[in-house]
Amino acid sequence: MDVKIVNQESVMVAVLEHRGAPALLNDSVSHFIKWRKTTGLSPVERSQTYGILYDNPETIPAADFRFDICGSVTQEVPANADRIITKLIPAGRCAVVRHVGSRDRIGESVYYLYQQWLPESGEELRDFPVFFHYLTLGLDQPESEQLTDVYLPLNALDGMSA
Predict the structure, then answer these.
(1) How many domains does the chain have?
(2) Which of 18, 56, 79, 93 could form a disulfide bond with 28, CB atoms 3.0-4.6 angstroms apart?
(3) pLDDT tens digits for range 13-24
(4) Three-state SS for 81?
(5) Distance (Å, rounded) from C-alpha 42 to C-alpha 96?
């Protein structure tokens, strides 16, 4: 895999915090999509779509799994009944790898970064979870056209700011 080091800018995002079984994640995604369409605050046509992965779904009890479904916004999200809140993906250095294919197999790219690339890189993790930038959206896309950038936040280099 081709790993690049980038300086990611901060991104303000509207967030639906999914808490619970990974098998129910698509229900939360559908809820977030409906919110995006009805409010227009994070339109898919002009906004970026992200996911923040807090837990490994293979090692944590299903009820404790956490994943944020995110869309970039230009202003704070007002209080709402849909439980959508505002968060910030912080600026900083990240290792990035492009995952091509089904998002059901995105764990392969995450594991590669953590288990193979990181130990050999000499880099250290920053205190922010791995996150995804979904470059293509849509349920009817062939797997070969599904593109997702996987970001692994890294500490700043010694003597340099993030």
Answers:
(1) 1
(2) 18
(3) 999 999 999 999
(4) coil
(5) 24
In a domain, 106, yes or no: yes
How far is Cα 37 from Cα 57, in angstroms, rounded to an integer? 28
CB atoms within 10 A of CB 12: 16
- pTM score of the predicted model: 0.92
Q: CA quadruple 124, 109, 135, 2: dihedral positive or negative?
A: positive
Q: How far apart are CA 19 and CA 17, in angstroms?
A: 6
**Is the Cβ–Cβ distance between 10 and 51 less than 8 Å?**
no
> Is 34 among the domain residues?
yes
- Which residue from 107, 84, 140 is spatially nearest to 22, judged by alpha carbons? 107
DSSP class of residue 24 equals: G
The answer as to whether 161 is a domain residue is no
**pLDDT digits 0-9 by tens, 81-92:** 999 999 999 999
What's the CATH code of the domain at 146? Answer: 3.20.80.10
Question: Which token pair is 99?
Answer: 């995952």
Task: Report CA Rg, the chain.
Answer: 16
Domain containing 75: what range?
A: 4-153
Confidence at residue 142, expressed as pLDDT on a 0 to 100 scale: 74
Q: What is the H or E stretch that residue 26 is in? A: helix 25-39
